[in-house]
Amino acid sequence: MDLENTQLMQEQYHILRINRSIERLEKLGTSHRYPKGYIFDYREHHPDSVYYIKKGRIMAYEDAFDGEHRVYNIMRSGSLFLEEYVLFPKPCPVLFETITDSELLKINRCDLIRAFKSDIDIVLDILDSVCNKFCASMEAQRIGAKQTAEWKICRMLISDFENFGKPYENGMVLKERVSHQMLADILGMNRVTVSRKFKKLRDLGLISQRDGYLYLPDIDAFLDYMDQLELLQTQEN
Length: 237
Known about the structure:
This protein is of the alpha+beta class.
């Protein structure tokens, strides 16, 4: 496994960005700033606008009847949300909350539909996002359920480094804060398990911290370790 072959893996990691040009969408919408903690709630009525994340992070979640707090993904800049509930109007069962101050591009449904009729590339922009979400759901069921907690943590970390890491010394540094609780919420684990696995990765020298940020000193060694985990799991099954 190498970083050139992580495109499919990214689709399992709750990173749902669109890969096409944003310029076309920018012409359709208007930019709005939302403070940390702002909640988009469309459980009782359907939304009338699609949102593109220009800056910031958005968490999709719900609090279930059994009291469980379920986080489905953390979306960053380059992601769209609510498009599936806007195109075919229906209420959205989950909440979206800004977990940082965020700048979003708001695109009204009428403007989007009008643009569909004149520009096939805008249709493909939206379909790109919908396709990524479908692949993420399918891959989570096809691959994720077969792997260990440690492998799932590793794959999310390597995807974050792939998408948001910066070269640093001989490795990469992740210039975003990653809390154990956030990872636990996304992966459906408890925080103690995540903390224990992080300690193991640190003890093995696969990750460390530099100035409060995660540092990946040797990418190849990290990917080789993931391969070992996957092989071990295959042998046990």
